[in-house]
Design a protein that fits this description.
The protein is α/β, with parallel strands linked by helices. It is about 50% helix and about 20% strand. The chain has one domain (about 1-170): Double Stranded RNA Binding Domain, CATH 3.30.160. Strands 1, 2, 3, 4, 5 and 6 form a six-stranded mixed β-sheet that branches. The chain is globular, with a radius of gyration of 17 Å.
Length: about 170
């Protein structure tokens, strides 16, 4: 079952990443890549519980994206470097806590995360892409899964961001 679940997630990730607008400049035209720390909208950063989820998202993004961006930078060798800045920003976040989901179930509502992934040329400051990655976990699915769909949102956002960068680096 776990293999089927992974294939299902992979399909969703590829599909959603493919629907995001492509960068105006090919990512492969850059030699250096810099991943900035997560920024948060005030509505997220000023709420301790939401900020904790955003920090978890940042940790997972760093773990997945940084090695990939480091590899791409190393592959460029010593030629003059154009740098692409990758700036993630959580603009909206509502993740139902496990205890709330257990006691209130579907009545607690949907969980959702929206993150902008701004790609900016370091030399010119020009934004070459700013896809908005959004996922939600249905309240009923959250209740039936005992909160697993709520907890999986962070992984989905991370996987979609990674897929987006990979697919547009190789084009």
């Amino acid at each position: 079952m776990q293999g089927a679940s992974r294939r299902h997630r992979r399909t969703i990730v590829k599909e959603q990443s493919g629907q995001l607008p492509a960068p105006r400049t090919p990512l492969s035209s850059y030699e250096r890549f810099e991943l900035k720390p997560m920024e948060m909208a005030d509505s997220v950063g000023n709420d301790q519980a939401k900020a904790a989820v955003a920090k978890d998202l940042e940790t997972r993004l760093q773990a997945v994206l940084q090695p990939m961006l480091t590899r791409w930078s190393a592959a460029s060798g010593q030629r003059p470097a154009r740098t692409l800045i990758v700036q993630p920003r959580v603009t909206q976040l509502r993740v139902i806590h496990g205890a709330t989901r257990a006691f209130v179930g579907a009545f607690a509502g949907d969980s959702s995360i929206t993150m902008d992934l701004e790609l900016r040329d370091a030399a010119t400051g020009a934004v070459i892409a700013k896809p908005s990655i959004a996922r939600n976990a249905n309240a009923m699915a959250g209740a039936w899964s005992f909160g697993a769909t709520d907890r999986n949102l962070v992984d989905y956002i991370t996987n979609i961001a990674s897929e987006y960068l990979q697919s547009h680096h190789t084009k």
